[in-house]
Design a protein that fits this description.
It is built from 13 helices and seven strands. By secondary structure, the chain is of the alpha+beta class. It has a single domain, classed as DD-peptidase/beta-lactamase superfamily (Beta-lactamase, 3-Layer(aba) Sandwich). It has a seven-stranded mixed beta sheet, sandwiched between helices. A hairpin with a 2-residue loop joins β5 and β6.
Length: 310
């Protein structure tokens, strides 16, 4: 069962939106797209006191999805998982806090740095990249690299079933033991669903993930400026070509995007005056979708319109 109440009108809005986007020169889009959309009557920010033991919110959370349970390669959206895991490790004193860790977390989320992500995952798992390893040593290395997946499983959320978050993110791709770990057919690539991503982001924004102070730190890193002047000249601004580009400048946005040659994704929580707050996660796959800078902004604009007060 979803952690939100399925809303038939919202579901119909998504169906109509996907059909309209496909008819607008995007053949095959329904199979390439996953969306999870949640709508809140009041701000979700730091509302953890209204969450029950099962993680459900006492707020009237309505939602809808299009392929929200389908596993897809998450690209840099997986960095949200590693951010949350780092805060969980810190709470359990499995990591030593310090300036270098905080710098890496900030660069991983704000600039989507793959180099920073590599360090974070090394610290989370106690592993490092390098040449291929003999079988016995490689087996031990693999078990260490599954620590984040083990932690995700311990949460007991049905949305996380089938998810995989154990790989670094790359510019050119993995080599050595990292390539071995991917599998011959890349079957061990990272995978997330929009439903799982939505639940993780939901609890971060609500202040329920790890602890309220930890959630507040994560919210600060996820906050994005929609001022064109502030993001001018920044190719990693994670607004242009993503959900934030479909929002008014005055909107408040917390997000983590992902983009590569075969994917364009974004996960966002949005507050706009005159509209219900909403959380929106969109994954789009394929070379055509990855190059389509208008797709995610169009989805965000349509969802915002549906959330406007009537």
């Amino acid at each position: 069962m979803a952690f939100y109440s399925p809303d038939p009108p919202m579901d119909q809005t998504l169906r109509s939106l996907v059909a309209a986007l496909e008819s607008d020169g995007r053949p095959g889009l329904p199979q390439q797209l996953s969306i999870t959309w949640l709508r809140f009557p009041t701000s979700l920010l730091q509302s953890a006191a209204q969450l029950d033991a099962g993680g459900r919110t006492a707020l009237s959370v309505r939602g809808a999805s299009w392929g929200g349970e389908r596993q897809r390669y998450p690209a840099s959206v997986v960095k949200l998982v590693y951010l949350i895991a780092a805060e969980a490790w810190l709470q359990r004193q499995l990591l030593e806090d310090g300036e270098e860790l905080r710098r890496a977390l900030a660069d991983m989320i704000r600039d989507s740095s793959n180099d920073a992500t590599g360090l974070v995952l090394d610290l989370l798992s106690g592993t490092t990249s390098g040449p291929s390893l003999p079988p016995e040593r490689f087996g031990a290395w693999v078990r260490q690299r599954q620590l984040v997946n083990g932690w995700l499983a311990s949460l007991g959320w049905p949305e996380l079933e089938g998810c995989n978050a154990c790989q670094k993110t790359w510019g050119d791709g993995p080599y050595g033991r990292e390539r071995d770990f991917y599998g011959q057919r890349l079957e061990n690539r990272n995978s997330l669903s929009t439903g799982a991503t939505a639940r993780l982001l939901h609890d971060v924004i609500a202040g329920a993930m790890v602890s309220p102070p930890a959630s507040a730190r994560m919210q600060e890193l996820l906050s994005r400026s929609l001022d064109p002047e502030q993001r001018a000249g920044d190719p990693e601004n994670q607004v242009d070509g993503f959900l934030g580009a479909g929002l008014p400048v005055a909107a408040k946005l917390w997000s983590k995007a992902g983009w590569m040659s075969q994917a364009r994704h974004d996960a966002a929580y949005v507050e706009v005056e005159g509209a219900d707050p909403f959380l929106l996660v969109v994954f789009s796959e394929g070379q055509r979708a990855a190059a389509d800078e208008a797709l995610l902004p169009a989805i965000a604009a349509a969802v915002l319109k549906a959330c406007r007060y009537s």
